[in-house]
Amino acid sequence: MQSFTLEPFPTRGQIHILLYKNVSNAAELRKRLLSHDQELSYAFIDAKMVLDKFQLLVATNDAVQHELNSSLKTHNVHSEIVYSLSPTTNISESLRRFGISDSSTSIVVVKVGGNSEEARSHLSTLIHGEECDIKDFSNFVDISRIKKYYKIDDKINDQNEMLDIIVGSIAIKSVS
Amino acid sequence: MIESAILIKQGAEARIYTAPFLTRTAIIKERFSKTYRHPTLDKKLTARRVTQEARCLFKCRKSGVDTPVLYFVNTENSTICMEFIQGMIIKDLLISDNEYIQNKEKQDELAEKIGIALAKVHAVDVIHGDLTTSNLMLRESNQSLVIIDFGLSYVSSLPEDKAVDLYVLEKAFLSTHPNSEEMKNYKASQGILSKLAEVRLRGRKRSMVG
Ligand SMILES: Nc1ncnc2c1ncn2[C@@H]1O[C@H](COP(=O)(O)OP(=O)(O)OP(=O)(O)O)[C@@H](O)[C@H]1O
Ligand SMILES: [Mg+2]
């Protein structure tokens, strides 16, 4: 787990990012998310679609901005993070592509605000899996899927270059 | 504005800050309102301008031009957050760096980079609109040419518009370096070149006829 501040919105609290592997109950979590279970106020993201923490932070920053100026396209700031990660404006498609699916085994969680240790211990009761260091994103990322959904030219293979385009695609969506 | 932001440039249309942003350092470009305009109209026009700048910036980056990475667009406070480029402004380089002042080869190499970059910008029909040497930088890390300031950019496929871009660049460069050949690597179509010849004759302003 690592915690960050969004400098544009410092009063919204810290952003906590956690990574889990060998998760066995994604289907159960997804079902609870679909029924708007209030206990799950976290963004649950498929780790296959995460290249870097900066990608998550940029999407979270956008989501918090939408929340603060009442322009959320989804139910709450956490689902908005999943939506904001996607370069397209189709909501259900975005949530399907970037959110967890029934078969997800590696999951990234983003939490806006609150205490980090409380979030971690709460998550340990929700997620059946092992927490790992968020430096390990690269072990779970699916590059070809990333390239497909972010429409990245096939010639681009450098991951930093990919990240630059990903981040730009996320940022430009708020004015598209 | 971010609390620890540092104002580094105050222009006629925008303020430029550096600030910490989500673990990185960013440049924040803030457009301010024009007080002579009606507030509602001003807000709308400024938001449109910010959006257009961000779009052109990203469009170029996505198609392989080295421009600052786009981080965040906020039309509520008219700011664009982007990558902070560690490097030199070409204008300063040409004035103060002896290597560039004296070495013709060095100048040609730079001119070549500029030509290649601009060709890429025009290939996706972005017209930069303000191609002066203050809006070009050289990255310190890899000496890549970076195009900045898409504040006057727009999308157009007209050879005339591309020719005006070339003309502005030509004038900017020739004022410091009369013998430079920055067009060498810009493989222009015949349409653009003949328009360039026209624009050279009449200057930047669009002709009123035709
Ligand atoms: N991404 C960046 N990285 C480093 N320095 C930058 C960056 N963007 C701008 N600058 C610095 O700030 C100066 C002014 O920025 P810019 O050219 O975008 O604004 P401007 O000329 O005031 O705007 P406009 O032309 O729209 O009125 C640049 O010449 C450069 O020195
Ligand atoms: Mg400028």
Automatic annotation (TrEMBL), chain A:
Alphabetical GO biological process terms: tRNA threonylcarbamoyladenosine modification
InterPro entries named in the record: CGI121/TPRKB, CGI121/TPRKB_sf
Subcellular location: Nucleus
Any one GO cellular component localisation term in the record: EKC/KEOPS complex
GO MF entry, a single one: kinase activity
Keyword terms: Kinase, Nucleus, Transferase, tRNA processing
Domain of life where this protein originates: Eukaryota
Function description: Component of the EKC/KEOPS complex that is required for the formation of a threonylcarbamoyl group on adenosine at position 37 (t(6)A37) in tRNAs that read codons beginning with adenine. The complex is probably involved in the transfer of the threonylcarbamoyl moiety of threonylcarbamoyl-AMP (TC-AMP) to the N6 group of A37. CGI121 acts as an allosteric effector that regulates the t(6)A activity of the complex. The EKC/KEOPS complex also promotes both telomere uncapping and telomere elongation. The complex is required for efficient recruitment of transcriptional coactivators.
Family note: Belongs to the CGI121/TPRKB family.
Protein name: EKC/KEOPS complex subunit CGI121
UniProtKB/TrEMBL annotation, chain B:
Annotated protein name in UniProt: non-specific serine/threonine protein kinase
EC number: 2.7.11.1
Keyword tRNA processing: yes
Protein species of origin: Rhizophagus irregularis (strain DAOM 181602 / DAOM 197198 / MUCL 43194)
Keywords: ATP-binding, Kinase, Nucleotide-binding, Serine/threonine-protein kinase, Transferase, tRNA processing
GO biological process, one term: tRNA processing
Catalytic activity: L-threonyl-[protein] + ATP = O-phospho-L-threonyl-[protein] + ADP + H(+); L-seryl-[protein] + ATP = O-phospho-L-seryl-[protein] + ADP + H(+)
Similarity comment: Belongs to the protein kinase superfamily. BUD32 family.
Cellular component, GO, one term: nucleus
GO terms, molecular function: ATP binding; protein serine/threonine kinase activity
PANTHER family per UniProt: EKC_KEOPS COMPLEX SUBUNIT TP53RK (PTHR12209:SF0), NON-SPECIFIC SERINE/THREONINE PROTEIN KINASE (PTHR12209)
Top-rank taxon, per record: Eukaryota
Coiled coil, from the record: none
